[in-house]
Amino acid sequence: MKKPEVRDSDDEEYDFSEPCHSSEEEYNSSESCDDSSDDDESDSSEENSIEPETAASTVTILVKFSSSKEERNLFKLKSSDTISRLKTMIKTQHGVPRKRQTLVYRGRVLENHETLAACKVERWSIIHAIFCPEEISNPNVVGVDMAVKVVSDALRVEVKPWYTGQEIKAIMESMAGISLGDHVLSHWGKLIEDSSSVLSTEGSSNMINNEDQPPIYLLSKFQITARGCGWEEVIMVSESHTVLDVKKMVEDFAEVKPENLMLCHGNGGDDKMVCLDDDEKTLLFYDVKEKATIWVLGRSWKLTIKMPQVGDKFVLSYDKVGTIKDIKDYICKKMGIPCSSQKLFRKGQLFDDEAASLETFNNQLEAENSVIYVTFGAGDDDQVDEIEDISLIFERDKNEKGLIEYKVVYKSESDENSESGESSDSDSDSSDLVSSFEIKLRSSCTIFDLKTAIESLNSFRICTQKLYWDDQILEDWETVDDDITKWSSVPAPLTIHFETPSSSSNVGANEKIVSAVDRADETLEEVLVPQEVLERIRGQPGFFLDGILLEACTLLPQIEAGSVLCLNSVVQINVTGPNGATTKVHVNPSYKFKDVKEKIELDCGIPFGLQRLTHDGDELNDDMTIGLYEASLGSLWKLRWNFCGTSWSFFYPWYKDCCRTG
């Protein structure tokens, strides 16, 4: 039933039958069972004789329950009713025995035999109800007399062993007459959570004399702004919150585990940043005050979930999914695909142990932004009578123009004569063609699953793959068995547009050239680039795809048709983060300074707002490009990247040539 609401007007009528929905006989019987000394019969007859009720003889009170911040009920009694009667009415509504109820009014615990008039409970007064947990055998145990310090005042409160922070707040609310929802309690230098026992804090159990107990501090919360990589949130804290407490508050926003986060306090200036490097220290220690800004540093490692059957992909934070089951649950919730129908692949491996940690499969998952492939549908385990593990060895057969072909050899898991070294190439991160590779999966998998596993290992797109039994092409829906004899990849003709620095006087302008790819096994370093194009590039040339520098050994069939590659000078900056680790960041002269900051934020976990790019100490416009800077102001060595008192220069690295001239 909907509970009645408190209203300001005394003239309006209220329906008090809901809070007191039991009959007088129910009240009397339950009260007599709890305490035979209470005489409810006289109360009942006296109350029934009053008709109509008058304001002088009735009291409407509001009972607020410490077990719920929002729950409160209205009760209508006579001023001559006892506290025991009020407890009986509360028991009827909430099922809590009277002996486990503690009622507090204006900071004083009300006794059962006292009347409302004797306790000076007036109309619309608020009484706080505290319920003792059932596991406490003696709710009436004598408590510890402790001081609760509010600003400069110290109030004495009897704290029973089972009192939690919420109970102390309820008592203090009744004393102060104001809501303390935005306050926290601190004892022995530790925060007391609303659900934690006050006397369970460190040191409390060792104190024998009440006089030795330090006071409980009631602290008000205040707002600070937490800013991270691409997000900003206002959070409520107190002076007693530790650095670790704040890390836990911002964990969901940063999508990084607290142990991998670092906090800084300041406005972003080089000399005014303070690193909050001790998790046990409080915000008071670091002088963090209201409206302060806390910078949250930490890279969020990403997992890209690719679903080739639906042509969709999405990104997950690595710190949010610890096991294979976590990923499947997320996909089930997002896409509606049952966990039992999902198959997950990475680097040619089938993730078939749902309880296994991701780190079990590859210790580099956190060292790179990894891609996990997901298939679903036909080929589920429950559709196959006998399920066995299958290992397929793909051996390079021949290499005709426009064709990549491997023969397939089945390998039994129990075959001790198989060469263990054949699968070593499958664990390599090199994209170059290998003489052999190995795929492990189950007999319940389909041909499509196998193609997906191969793409996850060697990046050959599923649409370019064909599997054969002799000369017969196998369909995607067929299951994997010992009929596969050959695999090939015949990529569609690939045309790549190369953006290069313009030879015109327009600094920073680009022009496009078109290059057709003739060989399916060609790598980037084998692509013929006209000499006049390379002459425009200063330093080491490199191919960039979506702002990412590609390795020279990348196979062209692994690049999606229609992609636009940028052939430009490679510019490097070594970024040292707050944890001391150095990351190589590669950009090119077409990058705007804001693009540089965004890439450093993504690769290193350093927020955009903390970074500064300067020339001779002067901060530069974010819309200026590296190429325009060099043409206008001179050497890259004077372009400095600044962060928390450290600075680094941009430079042209010198690597092995990654392009052929022709």
TrEMBL record:
Signal sequence, renumbered to the chain: none
Biased segments, Acidic residues type: 25-50
GO cellular component: cytosol; nucleoplasm
Top-level lineage group: Eukaryota
A GO term for molecular function: polyubiquitin modification-dependent protein binding
Region span, Disordered: 1-53
GO biological process: proteasome-mediated ubiquitin-dependent protein catabolic process
InterPro entries reported in the protein's UniProt record: Rad60/SUMO-like_dom, Ubiquitin-like_dom, Ubiquitin-like_domsf
TM annotation in the entry: none
One Pfam family per UniProt: Ubiquitin_2
Domain Ubiquitin-like: 59-130, 144-198, 301-362, 406-482, 571-629
Record's protein name: Ubiquitin-like domain-containing protein
